[in-house]
Amino acid sequence: MREIYRQTIHLIAGILIAFSVLIFKKLLIIPLIISIVVGIGLYFLCKKYYIPIISDLLNLCKREKEDGKGAIYFAFGMLLSLILIDDINAIFFGILVFAVGDALATIVGIRGKIKINYFGKTIEGFLAFFISTSLILYQFYGIYGIFVALISAFVEFISKKIKIDDNLYLPFIVAFILSIYPYKPQLSHIPTFCSIL
Fold first, then answer.
1. pLDDT tens-digit series, residues 2-15
2. What is the pLDDT of residue 113?
3. What is the DSSP letter of 121?
4. What's the chain's average pLDDT?
C-alpha cells in the first residue's frame, strides 16, 4: 500500500514538473540548480538530524531499502536535459513518459505473476510501461513514438542491472531520442491548456 501511495506522489509530481518545463522552458535551469544544491544539503542534514515535516516527507516518499536520493537524481537528469537538448517538447515528453510509465510499471509490477528474476522485474510491469507510454507518444510521434516507448520500457526493465538510478538517465534518454526525430509534433492544444494555468 505504501508503494502505491509513493508512486501516486511520483506520478502527480512528474506530471506537474513536465508541464512546468513546457511553460517555463530554459528559465527553469537556475531554479533547478538552486533546488539541487538545497536538496543535497537537506539530504545530508536529514541523515544526521530529524527535521520536522522535511524528514517525514522524505521517509514517506522513499522506498524502505533506499536512501531517498531519487528526487535529487531526477533533478540532475532534468537539468542535463535542459542544458543539452534544445527541443522543449522532447524534454516535456521525456519527463511525462518517465512519470507515467515508471509509476504504472511499479504499481502493476508488484502484483505481476511473471517475474524475470535476473532483472528483478515482471513482464506485467514492462507491459504497463510500454502500453501507457505508447498511448501518450503515438498521438504526437506516430509509429516512432511506439518505438521510443519500447526502448524506454526496455531500459526501465533492465534498470536494476545498470546500477544507476533511472531517475537520472531515463527522462534524458527519452528526450534525446525524441529530439532527433525529424518531424516535430504539433502540440497546439497543450500550450492552450498551459495558458489556462
1. 667 777 888 888 89
2. 85
3. E
4. 84
Residue 105 counted as domain residue: yes
**Cβ–Cβ under 8 Å, residues 170 and 156:** yes
Q: For residue 115, give the C-alpha cell.
A: 517475474
Tell me how far apart the alpha carbons of residues 152 and 100 are, in angstroms, rounded to a whole number: 12
Interatomic CA distance for residues 38 and 32, integer angstroms: 10
Residue linked to cell 525524441: 178
Structural domain harbouring 138: 2-29+69-196
**Number of domains forming the structure of the chain:** 1
Cα-trace Rg, the chain: 17
Q: Is the pLDDT of residue 66 over 70?
A: no
- Tell me whether residue 73 is in a domain: yes
Q: How far apart are CA 41 and CA 3, in angstroms?
A: 26
With beta carbons less than 8 A apart as the criterion, state whether 183 and 87 touch: no
Angle between helices 54-61 and 29-48 (to 10 degrees): 90
Q: Distances from the Cα of 141 to the Cαs of 35, 133, 137, 147, 183, in angstroms? A: 32, 11, 6, 10, 8
Quickly list DSSP for 129-141: HHHHHHHHHHHHH
- pLDDT 10s digits, 81-100: 999 999 999 999 999 999 99
| Domain presence at residue 97 | yes
Residue 112 lies in a domain: yes
| pTM beyond cutoff 0.85 | no
